[in-house]
Amino acid sequence: MKTVLIFSGGLDSTVLLYQLLADGDRVLTLSVDYGQRHRVELEHARRITRSLGVPWQLADLSNVGSLLGGSSLTSPEIAVPHGHYAEPSMKQTVVANRNMIMLAVAAGWAISQRADRLAYAAHAGDHTIYPDCRPAFADAMARAIRLADWHEIGLCCPFIHLTKTQIVVRGAELGVDFGSTWSCYEGGSVHCGLCGTCFERREAFQQAGVPDPTRYKSTPT
Amino acid sequence: MKTVLIFSGGLDSTVLLYQLLADGDRVLTLSVDYGQRHRVELEHARRITRSLGVPWQLADLSNVGSLLGGSSLTSPEIAVPHGHYAEPSMKQTVVANRNMIMLAVAAGWAISQRADRLAYAAHAGDHTIYPDCRPAFADAMARAIRLADWHEIGLCCPFIHLTKTQIVVRGAELGVDFGSTWSCYEGGSVHCGLCGTCFERREAFQQAGVPDPTRYKSTPT
After folding, report:
1. CB contact under 8 A, B104 and A100
2. Under an 8 A CB cutoff, do A144 and B137 touch?
3. CB contact under 8 A, A104 and B104
4. Overall fold of domain A2-70+97-176
5. How does the average pLDDT of chain A come out, rounded?
6. A173 touches chain B (CB under 8 A)
7. pTM surpassing 0.90?
8. Which of A120, A166, B16, B162 has a 20 to 30 A CA-CA distance from B25?
């Protein structure tokens, strides 16, 4: 099975990468530069794939981010909200239609590579904030991707009903090097510890009972 | 009705632009640079929208074209095939997943602009060559676009069951300035007259009984 994986260098897609490799897939990874503030994740993606000997490709969509405006992830003038990842303020981190754009570019690359399927690591914890992580969205995209070319590509999102905690458990079973992954929306050299995705990351390790190797700059009070 | 139109500066999307304006829509146009050889169409798009006083936005995806390789539209080393647009050789002009990528970026822009709907001018003549112009593909994308954000965007493709000839008839009724539109895949300063889209354009005017203002460099023998 030849699989293209949308790979951010974050915790979820790294666990999925390990799982696909454990399943014996021939994996090609694609990271997307959409002008994100935490572009540092791309360097983590490059390093992780290099250490695993997996091909890595960067899609440069950095010129497109400004069209999807109004997100703290792409607009330097909008601060990244602090607090729990399920709070309404986290909607400021939505980049309009980001997942469809990434899936579309990755599917195009998968078609040109004659891959069998495309994988991405949307998970259940994302649903309340990110509409484009919902199962119904993934189903519609799976259908569109299958119809987009004479060469049929399947869409695989095995974590869509898992919580982040369950993904950490799965990752621990697979021997994932969690310390090499990047989550924080702020970017920087260490995780801020205060943004929604840092909250979620810390909470997932705690709930999973798995040691958290992450260095956080701050701890919420 | 606030409508984002994917606008190439070609015949089909120009007729659709006139139709939307005639319907009273407030139209925003988006052209996509995907590294196409016939980038000259973007200049035509800019000029047409300026003459009509319609906002025009360019999405720069020129860095992505190389990932969708193997098309004569984006690879200088692959010649644009000459001949009838329904011939199997025309599959060389397929850019992998081009329409999904354009729809995804345009939907993202439409969401950020709080538009009501997204329009594109896929038509029946495209179906045999371009899988991503088929009605079933458009239906799947309509569903995915509706689910992609809390702000719902509709997808409008009113030409999907029309032939190019019918689009020319519609354009003539709407008073479209056909001479300002660009079709040819070769690029250049005048239409080549020999590529698939020049064939289709010439044939559509002939079958519609509408004067063809296009200057073609060559006539097929």
Report:
1. yes
2. yes
3. yes
4. Rossmann fold (3.40.50)
5. 91
6. no
7. yes
8. B162
Report, as an integer, the average pLDDT of A30-35: 92
Residues of B within 8 A of A143 (CB-CB) are 140, 143-144
What is the complex's ipTM, to 2 decimals? Answer: 0.91
- Please report the pLDDT score of residue B70 as a whole number: 67
**pLDDT, mean of residues B51-68:** 92
pLDDT of B136 strictly over 70: yes
- CB of B58 less than 8 A from some CB of A: no
Give the mean pLDDT of chain B: 91
With tokens 């897609």, the residue in question is A13
Report the gap between the CA of A48 and the closest CA in chain B (Å): 22
- Closest CB from B96, B98, B104 relative to A97: B104
At A123 the three-state DSSP class reads coil
Q: What is the DSSP string of chain B?
A: -EEEEE--SSHHHHHHHHHHHHTT-EEEEEEEESS-TTTHHHHHHHHHHHHHT--EEEEE-TTTGGGG-S-TTT-TTSPPPBS-TTSGGGGGGPPTTHHHHHHHHHHHHHHHTT-SEEE----GGGTTT-GGGSHHHHHHHHHHHHHSSSS--EEE-TTTT--HHHHHHHHHHHT--GGG----TT-SSSB-S-BHHHHHHHHHHHHHT------BS----
Report pLDDT digits (tens) over B141-168.
999 999 999 899 999 999 999 999 999 9
**Whole-number percent of chain A with pLDDT over 70:** 98
> Distance (Å) from the C-alpha of residue B165 to the closest C-alpha of chain A?
25
Cβ proximity of B121 and B22 under 8 Å: no
CATH of domain B2-69+98-183: 3.40.50.620
Kindly state whether A140 is in contact with chain B, defined as any CB-CB distance less than 8 angstroms. Answer: yes
